[in-house]
Amino acid sequence: MAPRSPMHWARALYSALTWAAQPLLRRKLSRRARAEPGYAEQIPERFGRYQPSSLGQDGRGQWVWIHAVSLGETRAAAILLAALRERLPGMRLLLTHGTATGRAEGRRLLAAGDLQVWQPWDTPAAVRRFARQFRPAIGILMETEVWPNLIAVCRQEGVPLVLANARLSDKSLAQAQRVAPLARPAYASLAGAWAQTGDDARRLRTLGTPVLGVLGNLKFDARPDTVLLERARQWRRALARPVVLLASSRETEEAMLLHALQASGPAAQQAQWLIVPRHPQRFDEVAQLLAGAGLRVSRRSQWSDGPPAGGAEIWLGDSLGEMALYYGLADVALMGGSFAPLGGQNLIESLACGCPVVLGPHTFNFSEASDLACAAGAALRVSDMAQGLARALALANDPQARGHAVEQARGFMRQHQGAAHATAEAVAAMLARH
């Protein structure tokens, strides 16, 4: 018998660890469900035990399976899905997620005949039960979701798996290279990947990924909710001061903003401040932080027809699915995740809504889009939160400069659109080959 390769032993060890971790996963889900009840839904699905096979039986071999792990990926999936439904009329969607926020957002994307379930935990048995029950015609993993057993089992079962809107940062590449015997076979076993940028393609190829093309970022094709944007415009007309938004803020960034506001003194009163945390489980935590600093807070969940007049120094955006409203309400946005060393959140939605962006120093998750937006004048980059606050205030209080930034943002968006149509065509071509 030939000796086993390091790759074989790496995946065997990984499989043993994921199998042993199942009780820990159950406990984690139970804990998270206390704050987010969605985590208590259909827990057996997490382990590859789905509803009776009749649910998936008549769709076998027909499902177009999209995996969107969380909220951001689900929003990108929504853009691709619109193009796929146009290109493949009558397609049946199998939609999977890993987080409660992704699953809640994904419900809005379902049409008659579609199905939504949890992604199986990455043990060989759970993944095999999933693949054999649904037998998708194709699997589309959004952006970064590379799971060794998922990819290996789908290849064994004849399910082509592709990575769409694919991105891979230098940091993620370095992490994958540290576990190369596990990561390289997974990336190399994909049926293909459509990268966002040339740099993403280069990094993916370093891991052996069969890159089929560089198609751009799906999020440039996003169409903001016009109802929310119009509501924001109506509310803005009643405001006496410009609005500065800290969008999709992450841990520590609200405290950074508070410190910068205190240091800026009277200058901070030139604007109305709005904070929208990235994760809903932090809404109460951020509200307590602001109140503890002696600030009057008005929460979006308590508004009826717009923000209350006067009184609140900070508005807290504690709702889901309303980022277009918040961006439409704001004159300028400080982009969360970029002031703490977290890689930044996506700035494209802000620009699509006509809201100029101020970026902190940490944008490695969206490095090319950030660099291009700054070069185009649609975004500004600063070194820290204090400088970001000062630049945001200056832009918000200069109508001419802000108007120029808005026009640059719109032109930047138009220049980079087209990824959704190109990806839908590529998916259709792959389906025809299989």
The fraction of residues assigned to DSSP E strands is 5-15%
Strand order, largest beta sheet: 3-2-1-4-5-6-7
Number of domains: 2
Low-confidence stretches: none
Distance between the termini: 34 Å
CATH fold label of the largest domain: Rossmann fold
- The CATH class designation of the largest domain is Alpha Beta
Instruction: Count the E strands.
Output: 14
Strand count, sense and barrel status of the largest sheet are: 7 strands, parallel
- Could you say which structural class the secondary elements and strand pairing correspond to? alpha/beta
The overall average pLDDT, rounded, is: 92
Measured on Cα atoms, how large is the radius of gyration? 23 Å
The shape is globular
Classify the helix fraction into a percent range. 40-55%
CATH H-level homologous superfamily name of the largest domain:
Glycogen Phosphorylase B
Number of helices: 19
